[in-house]
């Protein structure tokens, strides 16, 4: 096994627990930390648990501090953290928007901390059976103190069979706006149409139903975060609006030509 790590997960909701389970399975020590009391859940996963980060730092020598908070709450969570006590640990985020996350880490974290921006592009549903082939995007934002520790953390995902994608945060957001955000927007639009299964579903319609199911399962807060904090999302939304207008115009023009025959 690679170097064993002590990983503190700040934000121990569904996604934090999902990651914790895999980290423990890989032989790492995990401590969850959230405002809510997940003590029993953590115990079942084989993790420690504290509701106060100061207590964690009092009790453990932390190798990795992982932020698994929501996009909208991340800055406020960081601002309340005792960052002066983090020492030279590796700080990692798993937000779905990367330029914003990178800038937060650079703004608030002490200069002696190493910084790694990541996006596991899967979750408790898509990754519940295996992570094999699922994309893990990452950028070494600032890794100077302990490169070996950073590689040990990245290796967790490599050992699980993830498709490892090293990419700048800016490039990630560019691609994600035209994939992740458009997918979520399409699912939300179809949900507004209240489309439902019928006795004569085509394969294409089944695919649309699946998009609705997977996107609306995520909170609107997540969707808003993708819109608010990905600098490319606004443009993609405008392009979708123009595309719908263009399709409607083409239909009307074709209909007018047919009527003149």
From TrEMBL:
> Which molecular function term from Gene Ontology is one that the record holds?
prephenate dehydrogenase (NAD+) activity
- Domain Prephenate/arogenate dehydrogenase, first and last residues per copy: 5-261
Q: Please give a single GO biological process term from the UniProt record.
A: tyrosine biosynthetic process
* Signal peptide annotation: none
Family annotation (InterPro entries)? 6-PGluconate_DH-like_C_sf (IPR008927), NAD(P)-bd_dom_sf (IPR036291), PDH_N (IPR046826), Prephen_DH (IPR003099), TYRAAT1/2 (IPR045011), TYRAAT2_C (IPR059064)
Coiled-coil spans are 230-257
Keyword terms of this UniProt record: Coiled coil, Oxidoreductase
Which PANTHER family does this UniProt record tie to the protein? AROGENATE DEHYDROGENASE 2, CHLOROPLASTIC (PTHR43207:SF4), AROGENATE DEHYDROGENASE-RELATED (PTHR43207)
Q: What's the protein called, per UniProt?
A: Prephenate/arogenate dehydrogenase domain-containing protein
Organism from which the protein derives: Cyanidium caldarium
The root-end lineage is: Eukaryota, Rhodophyta, Bangiophyceae, Cyanidiales, Cyanidiaceae
